[in-house]
């Protein structure tokens, strides 16, 4: 995960008044995958595990018309 650190420091006549460090939130990329519900739970598990190995995190999953619509996210890598 990419985190960017920012530090702000205020000095007055050589004395450190305060210093604040914050971390910028990562930028996400999203992916939607539709899986058929066939009664084979192992097939769904295998598909989800394969996406997890590529660092995709399951955010939400809903059932519609005999299919699972799953939304995944992962930190966007800077190029």
SSE blueprint and pairings:
Elements lengths: L3 E9 L2 E10 L3 E9 L4 H13 L3 E8 L2 E9 L4
Antiparallel strand pairs: 1-2, 3-5, 4-5
Give the biggest beta sheet. Answer: 3 strands, antiparallel
Which regions are unreliable across 5 or more consecutive residues at pLDDT < 50?
Answer: none
> What is the 3D shape?
rod-shaped
Alpha plus pi helix count:
1
Write down the overall mean pLDDT. Answer: 83
Counted up, domains total 1
- Structural class designation: alpha+beta
Number of strands: 5
Name the helix and strand elements from N-terminus to C-terminus, one letter apiece. Answer: EEEHEE
Key terms:
79 residues, alpha+beta, 3-stranded antiparallel β-sheet, two-stranded antiparallel sheet, 1 helix, rod-shaped
Care to describe what's here?
This protein is 16% helix and 57% strand. It is α+β, with helices and mostly antiparallel strands and 79 residues long. β1 and β2 form a beta hairpin. The longest helix is centred in the middle third of the chain and has 13 residues. The protein has one domain.
Q: Brief overview, please?
A:
The protein is an alpha+beta fold. Helix content is 16%, strand content 57%.
